[in-house]
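G., before I forget:
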Amino acid sequence: MPNHSEIKNLLENREIGKKIVVCGWVKTFRSNRFININDGSCIDDIQCVIDLDSFNKETLSKITTGSSIRVKGQIVESQGRGQNIEIHVDNLEILGLSHPDNYPIQPKKHSFEFLRENAHLRARTKTISSVLRIRSKISYAIHKFFNDNNFYYIHTPIVTVSDAEGAGEMFKVTTLDLKKIPQTENNDIDFSKDFFGKETNLTVSGQLEAEAMALGMGKVYTFGPTFRAENSNTSRHLAEFWMIEPEMAFYELTDNIDLAESFIKYVIEYVKIECENEINFLSERLTKEEQSMPQNQRSELSLKERINFVIKNDFVRINYTDAFNILKNCKPNKKGKFKFPVKEWGIDFQSEHERFLVEKHFKSPVVVFDYPAKIKAFYMRLNEDKKTVRAMDILFPGIGEIVGGSQREERLDILENRIKSMGIDKKELWWYLDLRKFGSVKHSGFGLGLERLILFITGMGNIRDVIPFPRTPKNADF
Amino acid sequence: MPNHSEIKNLLENREIGKKIVVCGWVKTFRSNRFININDGSCIDDIQCVIDLDSFNKETLSKITTGSSIRVKGQIVESQGRGQNIEIHVDNLEILGLSHPDNYPIQPKKHSFEFLRENAHLRARTKTISSVLRIRSKISYAIHKFFNDNNFYYIHTPIVTVSDAEGAGEMFKVTTLDLKKIPQTENNDIDFSKDFFGKETNLTVSGQLEAEAMALGMGKVYTFGPTFRAENSNTSRHLAEFWMIEPEMAFYELTDNIDLAESFIKYVIEYVKIECENEINFLSERLTKEEQSMPQNQRSELSLKERINFVIKNDFVRINYTDAFNILKNCKPNKKGKFKFPVKEWGIDFQSEHERFLVEKHFKSPVVVFDYPAKIKAFYMRLNEDKKTVRAMDILFPGIGEIVGGSQREERLDILENRIKSMGIDKKELWWYLDLRKFGSVKHSGFGLGLERLILFITGMGNIRDVIPFPRTPKNADF
């Protein structure tokens, strides 16, 4: 293993007097004496103090922002404020140059747009690297929560023939020569010549396959990429994003909501502890950013306060009909302030309605359940009223829908009716229906969009800045 | 949360006398008295003992293999052999029927081919569910190892414009209407009309992007799906499989090998402990299966012995040239037993050569390093001899290559020469070259195929049986 130390460990262990080797990229070089370097292991730099006389001018001139160096020295108690230790440098080696005129990531504020164009280098900034460290720790917390709670992690297929879920537009996957698409006698595309012998797409959800696994393994979850070929150029949409989809046999809707709430709280609390420094930094960043906004657009709570609020308070739970009545009778609706007026029971709530419920009315995360059957997917369990289904959405302040889930329809005849009435081809779902023929049981699950959760925890404004290399319409660079 | 208990917890906690509720699928129903059920939480069933007189005939007739039931009762010490506890049933509810004439998964031996055709139900079998539980625990161990060792988990893109890696044939991703492919004036395909505005593919590796992240965040790893559109209908190839790719700044090749070896040992040992029952079961299964084979085709070691062997022994490390000489001078080569005779230095080793080294010559996992530059990728670091590169492959008994890695070329001029000499378009790699322009450092990484590691730990013979829904040529069912 390498003989250098990582800055994270040095700062945590504070072994004053120890001789060490450390490598990193130069952040700043001040007064020909203080070199701050970062190696990516944590948010903090370490300060390396050099004795000017020991180094020639040529070497010193190469110590520029972005250059990489290797330092031998001794850990000493720091003289400066804000650092607990620093390194007294005995020996310094330049590893790689970084010409100041060409290196894009200079020690100044860059716009997020600019950093996106330099996504291959933006992990060297404090903000983006903090977000990506949090992304990593969130992911780990997700695996840890499910592992500790007897869930099995399953990998559902990315390439799929199924398009029954209807969750959105899909990307085609093919090895056909686009210049010479083979045709059948009826002038249809001859997919029998394609790699999989059928028309295939990128998955929009692993749910249906996860159900099959849950009905053998009990409690399972997916954690993988999902895709939407929708032309949505917003700060909330990606064409490729990561989703977590637990699915539990023998769980009813209330169990499902209980699980989702405790899961989200666990993950947020885990990250709050593990990434304290990053969250402090991002909370300050956001507060500073909001200082330039008009008072009424600033957040009432700081990022840290919002995180604590979610961990400490029960989510509000309300059924669709009650939520509908609140919205119908609320001031903004009566005054015609909603772009989409709330009139008829059965409408799908729009972002403005969800935000009103969460940010104005309840000032809390809200779980809305028992939605009208007509606006929800075929697999959701029909209630006794025949009008609503056992669906649930969890709405978060500033983010909107962060979780969508349901109890699944386990009754074969009702499921078949729903499939028929929605005009879906039953043949394609033969195996999904099989699950209701052989030892069918009540079961439930939900989907959580990883990037939306990261947006909440980091306070970032654009979803493109919380994934290393975002995929959006007209953009698949890097 | 639901008020039923999970069988895993019941068997672990052994709370004799406790009143509980348990749900599951019927495995067997013997003597009108003993119902074995499994809920997927672990490999073991729990035996539910009913008092025949308390239930009417109609109810009893519905308790068939694959049906689902809910049982209330009391935990009692088991009378039978092989179980530590059983449930004395007070109340039994049939949840879902399973008609014996139609349910495919009857309590008898099914061929793996048959189970693949019923992949939606095969997680209800002991063998497949054991494999999938092991898959889950392997995945968790991977995340735990990296998290505990200060690595950050990164999600590299699945849809990519890059095809420079040359790791294999690729799937196209498109939203173009295949019946009306738009054309440019030159009769080329007009990809500017496509979703991403460019020709895009499914990734074959996240390595290049992982390098960009490592050169900001220090130590990172990917864990995600990768794709090969190769028409390989073998028991070792999938079109869609999961890969783990760590990438470490400031690591040289030896550090890289050290890491890979300790990583693999950690994961195998973790799973050996966490999935002891599953591995015992699969080890016995394999031994039984091999009993029907001729003596000389049986494994010298049982599955459990193989696992222990890998954990306890150092991997053999040998450079390509030494390995080449062993192969050139070995008996099978001299006697013309190899399909591909070993004659000239510079050849790529074939499966038969790797197996000879691992299974016959060293009888150990083997790390081969410093391969001829000509047979390896452009990004591998050129040695002083100008003929070999700092590549390494780890070869496993029965599996072949399980890890492929290298120290990456960090010197801009040499990298540019390699790209040129391999006929790759430099423009496409502008950002990858940038990483060598700004604070370039030595770095290394490797890729490990998840499914191959599962094959090793489970002793399964076909890679299609270690992933829930395999994707292979002409097959994307479910």
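DSSP finds 14 helices and 16 strands in chain A. Chain A touches chain B through 114 residues (CB under 8 Å).

More on Monday.
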